[in-house]
Design brief:
With 171 residues, this protein is α/β, with parallel strands linked by helices. It contains six helices and seven strands. It has a seven-stranded mixed sheet with strand order 1-7-6-5-2-3-4, sandwiched between helices.
């Protein structure tokens, strides 16, 4: 955890291992104050590990944006998808956006979904890399493919704007 305190002082990008990324994601879900974005191609069984944390934050008034889906490989774990759909029904501040459908509705013929893996927490930091936030379902000690993410704490408000503009999402 000392490593994460350094980011405040340097605000230089920090490379995170697969396990550090997972820990930082959980920490972000627990400490988010106003808004969080999660972009991930798939909603899989792993999502169920996080729905309680998301719901706790929603009860405190946090706004969530979950952007997901990739047309050519749009396979989701139905139980997890139903759970996030329940959150969408129950909480006005829970924005669940299936990107292939969103692009179709926007008339955006250039994009069919996302393969980007990104979280943005408040205006504090964002993490981007190969880690699938809503589908990675391994525990320490299990064999895994190598993953890496970059934590960036500079120009976070610009990252929010870039994503919303890119996908034509109105807040």
């Amino acid at each position: 955890q000392d490593k994460f305190k350094v980011e405040k002082l340097t605000s230089e990008p920090i490379t995170l291992s697969i396990w550090e990324t997972q820990e930082k994601f959980i920490e972000a879900l627990k400490s988010v104050k106003s808004k969080m974005l999660i972009e991930s191609p798939w909603i899989k069984r792993a999502t169920l590990k996080y729905t309680n944390l998301i719901e706790s934050a929603l009860k405190k008034g946090v706004t969530f944006y979950i952007l997901y889906g990739i047309e050519s490989n749009d396979e989701h774990y139905r139980k997890a998808e139903k759970e996030v759909e329940r959150l969408k029904q129950q909480y006005q501040k829970f924005n669940l956006i299936h990107l292939p459908t969103h692009f179709e509705e926007q008339g955006n013929r250039g994009m069919t979904g996302t393969h980007r893996k990104l979280i943005i927490k408040d205006d504090e930091f964002y993490i981007q890399g190969s880690f699938n936030f809503l589908s990675f379902n391994k525990e320490k000690g299990q064999k895994v493919a190598n993953e890496e993410s970059i934590l960036i704490s500079k120009n976070v408000n610009q990252k929010w704007k870039t994503v919303f503009d890119e996908y034509e999402i109105r807040k």
